[in-house]
């Protein structure tokens, strides 16, 4: 039996790609778009109890899906915030307004899948650095940051 190309399997261990602490959150780029040839990106995300995540927003050029692994994750979908539990899944299509946070007294973990696999890891890395450093960019800098990463913030 022959195999077409045995080198076409990428393995990214937790030891080699650990969670990165970012204030009340921790995240791990499980499969960044650079590894998947832009097909998708996968992020593991943890939120401490009673912590903010992402305010309502949408994206023009990619979809974002959420799969709850543990705890209770509050998602903004359909114009309202609502709790979701392990095994629950939500898909925010392009231009679908969504957000997330942890309103519970327990940690929450979830996966974020985005398609196509744009360089979303840059957004998460910059956001994590702002949280770690405590730096609070002004409105003009945040507008440029969001525009650079196809994130359109909306009012609740």
Order of helices and strands: EEEEEEEEEEHHE
Rounded to an integer in angstroms, the radius of gyration calculated over CA atoms is 16 Å
Helix content: 10-25%
Low-pLDDT ranges: none
CATH class, named: Mainly Beta
Per DSSP, the total helix count is 2
Q: Could you say what the CATH topology is called?
A: Jelly Rolls
Main beta-sheet strand count, sense and barrel state: 6 strands, antiparallel
Describe this structure in words.
The chain is of the alpha+beta class. 22% of the residues are buried. The chain has a single domain, classed as Jelly Rolls (Sandwich), CATH 2.60.120. A six-stranded antiparallel beta sheet has the order 1-2-3-10-5-8, with helices on one face. It has a five-stranded antiparallel beta sheet with strand order 7-6-9-4-11, with no helix packed on it. The chain starts with 19 loop residues before the first strand and ends with a strand. The radius of gyration is 16 Å and the shape is globular.
């Amino acid at each position: 039996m022959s195999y077409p190309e045995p080198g076409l399997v990428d393995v990214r261990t937790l030891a080699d790609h650990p969670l990165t602490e970012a204030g009340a959150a921790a995240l791990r780029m499980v499969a960044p778009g650079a590894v998947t040839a832009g097909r998708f990106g996968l992020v593991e995300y943890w939120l401490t109890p009673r912590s903010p995540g992402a305010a309502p927003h949408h994206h023009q050029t990619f979809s974002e899906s959420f799969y709850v692994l543990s705890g209770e994750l509050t998602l903004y979908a359909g114009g309202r915030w609502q709790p979701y539990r392990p095994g629950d899944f939500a898909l925010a299509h392009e231009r679908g307004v969504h957000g997330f946070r942890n309103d519970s007294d327990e940690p929450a973990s979830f996966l974020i899948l985005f398609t196509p696999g744009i360089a979303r890891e840059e957004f998460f890395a910059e956001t994590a650095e702002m949280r770690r450093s405590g730096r609070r960019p002004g409105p003009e800098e945040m507008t440029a940051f969001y525009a650079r990463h196809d994130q359109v913030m909306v009012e609740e």
